[in-house]
Amino acid sequence: MRFKSFCVLVILIGLLFIGQSRSFGQTNNLRIAFNGFGGTAPIFLGQDAGIFRKHNLTLEMIFIPGGSLSLQALIGRSLELLLTGGPPVINAYLQGAKIKIMPAR
């Protein structure tokens, strides 16, 4: 159940980044960074199963070691989504960074 809800969440987030003006036949790239391997298995499994390809999404999974470095890439708009956690995210948010924090359930 957790796998399905996580995949649905990733797909919905990806669809939010796709503008309505784009055609349905066009494949859209979604850059997702992670700095640990916990919780990324559903994304890799969904990609291997072709779930994202079915919805015209191409995921580019990027490993960036360290929360601060990956957060800088997100704030600098080099990424669309970041799977991370910990103090760097909270510190950036409290200092005014325009980021959305979504807790994992």
Describe the structure.
The chain has a three-stranded parallel β-sheet. It has 105 residues and is of the alpha/beta class. It has helices at residues 2-17, 41-49, 51-54, 67-75, 87-94, and strands at 28-34, 57-63, 81-83. The chain has a single domain (2-94), classed as D-Maltodextrin-Binding Protein, domain 2 (3-Layer(aba) Sandwich).
User: What is the helix tally?
Assistant: 5
Structural class of the helices, strands and pairings?
alpha/beta
- SSE sequence, one letter per element: HEHHEHEH
CATH architecture type: 3-Layer(aba) Sandwich
Shape: globular
Unreliable segments of 5+ consecutive residues: none
Name the descriptors.
105 residues; three-stranded parallel beta sheet; single chain; alpha/beta; 44% helix; D-Maltodextrin-Binding Protein, domain 2
